[in-house]
């Protein structure tokens, strides 16, 4: 009988929804050996094979206001940041097969000294500055971002043919290795309206994106207002989106509260729920993915052996 997958779950920002989500998922039970990482007082009563404390919290939930909140936020950022780094070290040392990180607050992380644009760049650094890409995934749609947390005005200069090709190659490798798709079908989302309309609305699509699509054997560039619908209907296995909000909007409209952020290119699978701010109560709590079922070369991330627990 195969052994259970070993997953490290971090509780994220101790002020946020991460501890609550983790508690509900673990109470339901998941088919995995879980290492739980977070504030000592927040992991104490949760069921797990192993628990690693990265500080103590005991300061309540939610974001406060005023001068005192800056120190509270920095402390929360330290706990969340040390949680992520501890989980990554466990995965690199092969003590766990995959990591799941609950939501953290970028401003709090920066106050605590973790000055990364997001988890994608952070995990890439921890893994030895490897090349990575951010995938936003749900059952009905997968989107891979060519650029991530940058101002919109910077996108045209950052979206180069070489960058699109490399992002597509990372995505294709992950679809083969982690999802078991022998010949991934990629589409390239256009940058400009109507894919530039033969240069009328910009030449980047034909000048930059079209050569990348040819190199990858991908379709496109295809207009943003149709490419994601076509992918959801089964025509493509993933869409390469040129900038953050076009890809993030597509996945949230398609699967709000059910999507996960997967960092591609790492030597281990790393997932993060796609959420609003970490303490929001305005949206459904995002899922924490739990590894279940059979083991293969990759411990998970295929429809057959991933369970997305909505809580």
Task: Describe the structure in your own words.
The protein has 311 residues and is of the alpha/beta class. The chain has two domains: 1-129 and 266-311, Isopropylmalate Dehydrogenase; 131-265, Isopropylmalate Dehydrogenase. Helix content is 35%, strand content 19%. The protein contains ten helices and 13 strands. It has helices at residues 18-28, 40-43, 67-92, 106-111, 119-126, 155-158, 161-177, 204-216, 224-232, 244-255, and strands at 6-10, 33-38, 50-53, 98-101, 133-138, 141-145, 186-189, 219-222, 238-241, 260-264, 270-273, 288-291, 306-309. It has an eleven-stranded mixed β-sheet with strand order 3-2-1-4-11-10-5-6-9-7-8, sandwiched between helices. It has a two-stranded antiparallel ribbon with strand order 12-13. Helix 1 (18-28) links the parallel strand 1 and strand 2. Helix 7 packs parallel to helix 8. It is globular, with a radius of gyration of 19 Å. 49% of the residues are buried. Mean pLDDT is 87; it is low at 280-311.
């Amino acid at each position: 009988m195969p052994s259970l997958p070993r997953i490290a779950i971090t509780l994220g920002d101790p002020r946020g929804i991460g501890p609550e989500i983790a508690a509900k998922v673990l109470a339901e039970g998941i088919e995995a050996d879980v290492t739980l990482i977070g504030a000592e007082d927040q992991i104490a009563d949760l069921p797990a094979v192993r628990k690693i404390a990265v500080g103590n919290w005991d300061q309540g939930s939610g974001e406060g206001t005023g001068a005192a909140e800056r120190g509270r936020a920095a402390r929360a950022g330290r706990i969340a940041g040390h949680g992520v780094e501890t989980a990554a070290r466990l995965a690199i040392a092969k003590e766990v097969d995959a990591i799941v990180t609950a939501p953290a607050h970028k401003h709090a992380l920066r106050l605590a000294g973790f000055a990364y644009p997001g988890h994608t760049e952070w995990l890439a650094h921890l893994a030895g500055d490897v090349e990575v890409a951010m995938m936003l995934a749900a059952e009905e749609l997968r989107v891979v971002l060519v650029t991530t947390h940058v101002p919109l005005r910077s996108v045209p200069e950052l979206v180069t043919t070489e960058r699109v090709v490399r992002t597509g190659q990372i995505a294709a490798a992950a679809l083969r290795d982690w999802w078991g798709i022998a010949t991934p079908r990629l589409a390239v989302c256009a940058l400009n309206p109507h894919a530039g309309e033969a240069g009328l609305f910009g030449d980047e699509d034909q000048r930059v994106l079209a050569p990348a699509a040819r190199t990858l054997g991908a379709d496109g560039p295809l207009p943003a207002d149709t490419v994601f619908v076509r992918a959801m209907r089964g025509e493509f296995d993933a869409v390469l989106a040129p900038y953050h909000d076009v890809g993030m909007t597509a996945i949230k409209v398609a699967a709000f509260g059910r999507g996960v952020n997967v960092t591609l290119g790492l030597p281990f699978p790393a997932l993060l729920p796609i959420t609003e701010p970490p303490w929001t109560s305005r949206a459904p709590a995002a899922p924490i993915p739990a590894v279940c079922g059979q083991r293969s070369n990759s411990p998970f991330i295929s429809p057959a052996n991933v369970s997305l627990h909505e809580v």
